[in-house]
User: Fold this.
Amino acid sequence: MTHEELIKLIEERFPPSLSEEWDNSGLQVGPFEGEVKVVGLALNPSLFSIKSAIEKGCDFLLVHHPLIFPSIRRIDTSTAIGKVIEVAFSHRITLYALHTPWDVTSGGSSDYWADLIGLGDRCPILPARSDSKIGIGRIGRIESVSFDDMVSFLKRQVNFLLPVQVGRKEISKVAICSGSGGDLLDRVIALGADLYITSDLKYHQVLKALNAGVNLLILSHHEMEERSLIYLERELKKLVFNIDLNLLKERDPLLS
Assistant:
């Protein structure tokens, strides 16, 4: 399978039209000629990831976060972005970012966490423009559980967890956004969630949630999104059968 043929398969499953307007998902470097035999999956288009891809013999690196984001005016190889581009070109590794199309799609990043806690009757917090059945984040119901029990459960699953409790009713309606979820907070409040599981909330967003009676479980952005790559690997295996897939993990900066 060529690099362009693999991109076509990826985009048929995760259409670029699902990208948010502010996003820069899609091809970042390449595509190069020749056959794709080994694909690397990574959270970040970092120098660590591209070097790991080289060590694994990857021809193609599929990442979550875009490399060229925001747009750049020059390729300066003394910078982190410029160095990644230089190494990708020198080793003929196509670099493709599957950012918000992966977040939005069914079975994507937030669904990993929704499945983990057994979220039922789920729907997007923010539906996609093209299809209300998919979108950013998930909200739904679980069997009623105390906040402390939910904290205990997730502490057994994750490496970083910051619980913020309003000290009220048990949890039954839960909202989840893998990665930075602050922009969805008003919708989470309006939808009547008892608990919001996400990352990167600002101080005043935390106060707003508490004032609205919403409990919070704040996880690491890195951990939330990197764990969901297990689901992306599963989806890719449905698309390609003769290509090796390698999940390339990077150290969480919050745990450094």
Notes: The two ends are 38 Å apart (CA to CA).
